[in-house]
Task: inverse folding
């Protein structure tokens, strides 16, 4: 039986979430590092979001573009769900002192602040792990922990997409301008890597009793995402420039436009089994008997002619009809989806990829992993700035007089 969170539920009560009781300090900004904390929270961790007095700048990222009719900050709610917010002015000694006290009792500390800032604020790995030998210190950087650009700042569009070669390779053809990325395309995959590193370190801690330092970078993740072509280049393998779609040398793995203007992505790697059913679905059963298209080598040699025929056939029907025909024929393809399609995507809901908020209307995107028999924590809306500060400080041993004094000094806020 499938659960609503994308896993497979065993009969009876759900198992405890694996990170229940784990305390995580999210001392990071924007997406890649904080999203790793979000996944830990999905599986039960208590995530405390440390924010400066003006708030994580991610709160403002989409403000210029506007929000929906309910005014909900979609980016912030996606990556800060289930977190508790504490505002600390880390430029003040009392602010650093509070963070150090929290770190001494935490299990995971996540940051992506530039290395010089970490050293200046005394939240570098040596300082924080010195407070708590069981703590896992998780670092996200743009370009890595060492090297001439270790202190350089960057975002996924610069370090993941542009630097790795992906931005150049995914353009429509070799003469086109570089393809622009969209928000978070490299950040969320990089967050999965940091989550994996943290989980590995926690597993190691179970064996050794000690935490440690783990890290990843946007550049390393971009190179890993582009590893097939990067490895080819490292081996000096031939890499032909990408031709325009209508001149692709592989017509069986190409994009085709339907009558209603929608596109589908044909990915027919098993040509021996699927070419005849494809021809039948397209109402050109004579195609496999044409010497120009009789086998994969012939099809590649005559790719321009074959693409022209397929273009003409796909233009005869709407996408919905082609989906039925190609599914019935057992041909591998994918719809080139739009964001509008997701509003009615039954599979995305049934599989748990999209899940409802527990305390507000609407859906959110679930983290893309599941554990059989374990229900993820139901998403709750992201915190207001400093919403949980007093409660967090009381848990750390501060009394109401301390909290009032710290608020008066501007050390805490929100």
Result:
């Amino acid at each position: 039986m499938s659960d609503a969170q994308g896993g497979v539920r065993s009969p009876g009560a759900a198992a405890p979430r694996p990170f229940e009781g784990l305390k995580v300090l999210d001392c990071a900004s924007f997406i890649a590092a904080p999203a790793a904390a979000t996944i830990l929270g999905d599986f039960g961790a208590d995530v405390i979001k440390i924010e400066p007095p003006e708030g994580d700048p991610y709160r403002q990222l989409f403000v210029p573009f506007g929000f929906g009719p309910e005014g909900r900050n979609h980016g912030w709610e996606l990556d800060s769900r289930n977190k508790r917010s504490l505002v600390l002015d880390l430029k003040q000694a009392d602010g650093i002192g509070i963070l150090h006290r929290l770190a001494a009792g935490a299990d995971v500390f996540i940051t992506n602040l530039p290395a010089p800032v970490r050293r200046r604020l005394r939240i570098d790995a040596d300082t924080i792990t010195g407070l708590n030998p069981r703590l896992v210190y998780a670092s996200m950087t743009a370009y890595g922990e060492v090297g001439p650009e270790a202190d350089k700042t960057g975002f996924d569009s610069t370090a993941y997409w542009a630097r790795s070669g992906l931005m150049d390779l995914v353009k429509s053809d070799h003469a086109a301008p570089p393809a622009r990325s969209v928000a978070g395309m490299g950040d969320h995959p990089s967050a999965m890597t940091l989550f994996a590193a943290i989980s590995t370190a926690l597993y190691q801690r179970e064996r050794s009793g000690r935490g440690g330092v783990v890290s990843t970078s946007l550049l390393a993740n971009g190179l890993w995402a582009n590893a097939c072509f990067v490895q080819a280049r490292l081996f000096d393998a031939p890499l032909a420039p990408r031709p325009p779609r209508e001149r692709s040398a592989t017509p069986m793995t190409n994009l085709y436009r339907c009558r209603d203007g929608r596109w589908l992505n044909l990915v027919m790697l098993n040509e021996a089994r699927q070419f005849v059913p494809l021809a039948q679905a397209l109402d050109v059963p004579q195609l496999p008997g044409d010497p120009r298209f009789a086998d994969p080598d012939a099809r590649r040699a005559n790719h321009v002619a074959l693409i022209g025929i397929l273009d003409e056939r796909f233009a005869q029907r709407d996408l919905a009809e082609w989906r039925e025909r190609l599914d019935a024929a057992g041909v591998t393809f994918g719809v080139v989806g739009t964001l509008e399609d997701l509003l009615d995507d039954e599979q995305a809901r049934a599989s748990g990829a999209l899940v409802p908020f527990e305390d507000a209307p609407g859906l959110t995107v679930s983290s893309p992993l599941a554990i059989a028999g374990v229900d993820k924590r139901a998403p709750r809306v992201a915190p207001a700035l400093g919403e949980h500060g007093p409660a967090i400080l009381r848990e750390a041993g501060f009394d109401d007089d301390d909290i009032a004094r710290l608020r008066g000094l501007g050390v805490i806020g929100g």
